[in-house]
């Protein structure tokens, strides 16, 4: 990796200053964490796969007019993104009960919800990313009512699009987490999708077998973690049809 200024290092990615003003380079690591850093590990090749999967999905979103921070992929582990001001609120979009929704509300996992819903989490590792209401968000100034309207409308469009896209490749999109950023240009500001969209922050179940193909394999020690990510990439058409055997290490991904 060439020497350059690190702007931020998170659990799964590193951000570097980009080649031109207003850009950043997003580097994808193989590190995996769960339960707010209490569980840590390495998923070999994950960074390479998530870079490709997120590129694929963000590109499609850009193409249908849903704005994202994604500009272009640079190499196996890096992509160029627009620098945005990250809103400290994450949106969790859910169509099927799973994870904390199932436990918090006592709905059995796998139940299709009456409609897709969004829940908001305040981004704070110290507080374990607590769920917050719109009242909290506007009262504490984390986002305005207008921001929330824009975030909800973006999230529902992303949800509809991704639901259809994954349905087409035999995958049930159970839920996913989105990050939002404010993109400033001259005297204008608009909210765009930021971060990444990958099996790290989506729940993806095989439609026929119900098998999990996402980070839950790591969270709950289900085994064959790498294979889950590889299979998602393969079905998206990002990897050669011959499948996992061909893509043992990052090398063969180029
Ligand atoms: N999620 C995420 N990062 C986290 C926790 C969850 O991206 O730190 C995603 C997860 O992959 C799932 C969705 O958010 O798609 C909701 O997960 P869960 O119900 O387990 O979230 P929790 O309420 O436990 O944070």
**The number of domains:** 2
Residue stretches low in confidence (pLDDT < 50, at least 5 long) are 242-254
The CATH class label of the largest domain is Alpha Beta
Q: How many E-type strands?
A: 14
Instruction: List the ions, cofactors and other small molecules found in this model.
Output: uridine-5'-diphosphate
Helix and strand succession? Answer: EEEEEHEEEEHEEHHEEEHH
End-to-end separation: 16 Å
Query: What structural category characterises the helix and strand content?
Result: alpha+beta
Form type: globular
- CATH fold topology of the largest domain: D-amino Acid Aminotransferase, Chain A, domain 1
Give average pLDDT, whole number: 94
CATH superfamily membership of the largest domain: ATP-grasp fold, B domain
Explain what this protein looks like in three dimensions.
This protein is α+β, with helices and mostly antiparallel strands and 254 residues long. The protein folds into 2 domains: 4-84 and 227-238, Phosphorylase Kinase, domain 1 (2-Layer Sandwich), CATH 3.30.200; 85-206, ATP-grasp fold, B domain (D-amino Acid Aminotransferase, Chain A, domain 1, 2-Layer Sandwich), CATH 3.30.470.20. It is built from 6 helices and 14 strands. The strands form 3 sheets. Strands 8, 9, 10, 11, 12, 13 and 14 form a 7-stranded antiparallel beta sheet that branches. The structure holds uridine-5'-diphosphate (UDP). Uridine-5'-diphosphate binds at residues 92, 99-101, 129, 175-177, 201-203, 215.
């Amino acid at each position: 990796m060439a020497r350059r200024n690190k702007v931020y290092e998170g659990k799964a990615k590193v951000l570097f200053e980009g080649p031109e003003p207003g850009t950043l380079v997003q580097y994808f690591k193989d590190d995996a964490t769960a339960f707010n850093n209490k569980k840590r590990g390495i998923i070999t090749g994950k960074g390479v796969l998530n870079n490709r999967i997120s590129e694929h999905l963000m590109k499609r979103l850009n193409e249908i007019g849903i704005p994202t921070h994604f500009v272009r992929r640079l190499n196996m582990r890096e992509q160029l993104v627009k620098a945005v001001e990250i809103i400290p609120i994450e949106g969790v979009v859910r169509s099927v009960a799973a994870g904390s929704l199932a436990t918090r509300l006592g709905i059995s996992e796998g139940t299709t919800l009456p409609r897709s819903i969004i829940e908001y989490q305040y981004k704070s590792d110290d507080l374990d990313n607590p769920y917050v209401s719109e009242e909290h968000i506007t009262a504490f100034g984390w986002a305005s009512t207008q921001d929330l309207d824009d975030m909800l409308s973006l999230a529902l469009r992303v949800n509809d699009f991704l639901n259809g896209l994954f349905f087409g490749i035999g995958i049930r999109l159970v839920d996913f987490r989105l990050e939002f950023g404010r993109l400033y240009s001259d005297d204008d500001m608009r909210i765009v999708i930021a971060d990444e969209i990958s099996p790290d922050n989506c729940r993806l179940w095989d439609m026929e077998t119900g098998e999990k193909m996402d980070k839950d394999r790591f969270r709950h020690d289900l085994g064959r973690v790498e294979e889950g990510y590889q299979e998602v990439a393969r079905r998206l058409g990002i990897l050669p049809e011959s499948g996992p055997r061909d893509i043992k290490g990052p090398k063969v991904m180029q």
